[in-house]
Amino acid sequence: MASTPLRVAVIIGSTRAGRVCDAVAHWFAQRARRREELAVEVLDLAGYAFPARYPAQATPAMCRFADAIGAADAFVVVTPEYNRSFPAPLKQAIDFAYDEWQAKPVGFVSYGSGSAGLYAVEQLRTVFCALHAVTMRDWVGLDLLGGDFDDRVPRDTDDRLRAVGAMLDQLTWWGRTLRQGRRDQPYVS
Ligand SMILES: Cc1cc2nc3c(=O)[nH]c(=O)nc-3n(C[C@H](O)[C@H](O)[C@H](O)COP(=O)(O)O)c2cc1C
Q: Is 152 in the pocket of ligand 1 (CB under 6 A)?
């Protein structure tokens, strides 16, 4: 039902010590929580003791992560750009779920020193396509060197809040539509 809040998981995509990502993710989550149709949770990859090597059997941390992905209706991945891509721990975590991503929408908040994380986002679109997830056309891109931040926290300019709104509008439409679709019939992967 459209009236049931959409469960949105905001994923902190960097686990680097001293990362900017947690501040960006919480900034975004606070703005998303202004919408009463969304139930927003922040998932911090640094809070999962993932194995260094992909194990033969899923570990408790991997299962806990897959359960959290399975419980969400929609996602917003907050990612920095590292060498024109996204961080390796984010890819590792994405790979620990599969069915749980299917037929769900994914939006992006990205940042970097120059391209506002555009390369990272475009590569994530390819990854999520392989997982049968739907990526949102509009995203929120932030330039670490271009005056978009006040001490690690993005500035609330009119343009930025419009970008947040556009992405959340799309995420909500797809989230509701796909939630209903998954209820109506099993997804064919
Ligand atoms: C290994 C490494 C590679 C990076 N490569 C890029 C890059 O290709 N493009 C870019 O815009 N910023 C790049 N940066 C800058 C990061 O986006 C910036 O340091 C950001 O704060 C990293 O996110 P985090 O602090 O949340 O980990 C790089 C940073 C690191 C540590």
A: no
For the CA of 84, the closest atom of ligand 1 is 8
* Tens digit of pLDDT at every position of the chain (189 positions): 567 999 999 999 999 999 999 999 999 999 999 999 999 999 999 999 999 999 999 999 999 999 999 999 999 999 999 999 999 999 999 999 999 999 999 999 999 998 999 999 999 999 999 999 999 999 999 999 989 999 999 999 999 999 999 999 999 999 999 999 999 999 998
- For ligand 1, is residue 80 a contact (CB within 6 Å)? yes
Q: How far is the CA of 162 from the centre of ligand 1 (A)?
A: 25
Set out the domains of the chain in order of their start, with CATH numbers: 6-183 (3.40.50.360)
Neighbours of 112 (CB within 10 A): 21
In this structure, are residues 50 and 92 in contact, taking their beta carbons and an 8 Å threshold? yes
H helices present in 33-157, as ranges: 60-71, 88-95, 118-130
Residue with the smallest CA separation from ligand 1 atom 4 is 82
